[in-house]
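Lab intake sheet, docking and co-folding queue.

SAMPLE TYPE: protein with bound small molecule
LIGAND NAME: zinc ion
LIGAND FORMAT: SMILES
REQUESTED OUTPUT: full 3D complex as structure tokens
PRIORITY: normal
SUBMITTED BY: R.K., bench team

The fields below were copied directly from the construct record.
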Amino acid sequence: MSNFETSVLYGGTTINYGVIFSARKTLGIQVYPDGKVIVRAPNKTDVKVIYNRVKQKSAWIIKQQNTFKSNLVLSTKKTYLSGENHYYLGQSYPLTIRDALKEKISLSERQFKIETRKPDDADHIKKRLRMWYRREAERIFTERYNDCIQSAFKIGIEHDLGINVRVMSKRWGSCSKRGKIILSLNLIATPIVCIDHVILHELCHLKEFNHSAKFYQLLRTLEPDWKQKSTQLDMMGNVYCV
Ligand SMILES: [Zn+2]
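RESULT FIELD (auto-filled):
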């Protein structure tokens, strides 16, 4: 039986969950820091049994998600002071902030060097950094997109609309029915392989507009180890943000 994603409605809340089958004995539900719900089930477990279990545990799942959400706010509150670490392509770099007449941001092997007229103004530095990240995101995501559409083309997926970058806090990317692909600015903090993973995921939605077994089959042909990247993004969700 192949893994799949689906959802259950509890009160007014939709709980999305992924199911992973393996040779285990019991059914386990796990809520990750980014709110993702994963059900690990013994091979051949009836999907109805899984659905009922998730439904039964809904209140607990929502409580866990809310706890993570409040922790997330705390852990991602950045100070924009010298020495604070910021991520770029999966690596963290400390900020070095200097008083200067001209605004400039540069990244070396060791640090983010920020020269600014307002070294003590966190909002100002945040804005400068965001602009820098956005420029990098547009450049790098476009490069990766151009590579990814070539692989996707080989399995019959065509797309030429490019990508759009947005500030999104809860998702890494999305694909509309019309094929508009949006990538989260936060992806620029993740390793290149994770950026590719999200682009390939969204490209697969052009053929399978869902998270069915067929969708994952398609994704697997493009990216056999997609699960590893997906888990990395789940686990690092509150660290990989800009
Ligand atoms: Zn998707």
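REVIEWER NOTE: Residues 201, 205, 211 surround zinc ion (CB under 6 Å).
SIGN-OFF: pending second check by T.M.
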